[in-house]
């Protein structure tokens, strides 16, 4: 079973009403809506009544999934995904659902919309109905994650926080491979198209790129941050063309694909006038024009490992509990990278 919102009814946009819709109508934060509907004693009466009226008007209802009553019993596991429309998460979602089903659990799929407040709100709201959580690419702070892990079993992906189980995909070494590939082609001025500022992975990649650029004696420029979607690609491409760089490494494939589209619109030849590297090797990366050079990440494996780590916490004694697993990446070279037309500096 999958859900993106715990709701009923329909909105003018053709989707069910969301907690954010209720928050907007009642003039409060989404977290306040969550407390009013699930823990009403924590909200003053006037605010609670206003929220309840807004929820009734929109036809919104909070989640009522039953919670497991003891270790080893079946129950629901909530998987909080930053953007369910991002193809990066497709194989991940499928692998977690399969592993959970095999272990006797139901998957609740929740879209946090790249919103830190919404992620924190859902984590609290679903704590009463989910036996555990899997958080791929969480945007929460270390303090928030440590607090959440003290209340419910959870596993993060691409995030290392003391005391919180995690699965790490080694993209820092992957972007270093990408830089060495571009260096071997003759590029000496490379741009990094950065992702969300609160992305732990983004920070690690930038540190790795700076380290390798210093070792190679070349220029690395940080442009952005950019929202991790194709629509950010146009702005990223325009800035890239004014930067002086002859190649770029994008935070993810969606940004890279958006860059390819914009460069084609502006008549820029890829790879002769600009080389482009993505990250993740999502479905469709090899269908681009030209096909995208990118880091291939073991996304499906990450989902399986994270699920196994969580299940081992839900069923103590059945298997050895790991606190951390690290998975390698590798560079897949396609036609979007080549030697620069401009001579190296």
From TrEMBL:
Superkingdom, natural source: Bacteria
Every HTH lacI-type domain range: 17-71
Keywords, comma-separated and alphabetical: DNA-binding, Transcription, Transcription regulation
An MF annotation (GO) of this entry: DNA binding
Pfam families, sorted: LacI (PF00356), Peripla_BP_3 (PF13377)
Alphabetized CDD domains for the sequence: HTH_LacI (cd01392), PBP1_LacI_sugar_binding-like (cd06267)
InterPro entries: HTH_LacI, LacI/GalR-like_sensor, Lambda_DNA-bd_dom_sf, Peripla_BP_I
PANTHER family per UniProt: LACI-RELATED TRANSCRIPTIONAL REPRESSOR, TRANSCRIPTIONAL REGULATORY PROTEIN
Protein name: LacI family DNA-binding transcriptional regulator
Phylogenetic lineage: Bacteria, Bacillati, Actinomycetota, Actinomycetes, Micrococcales
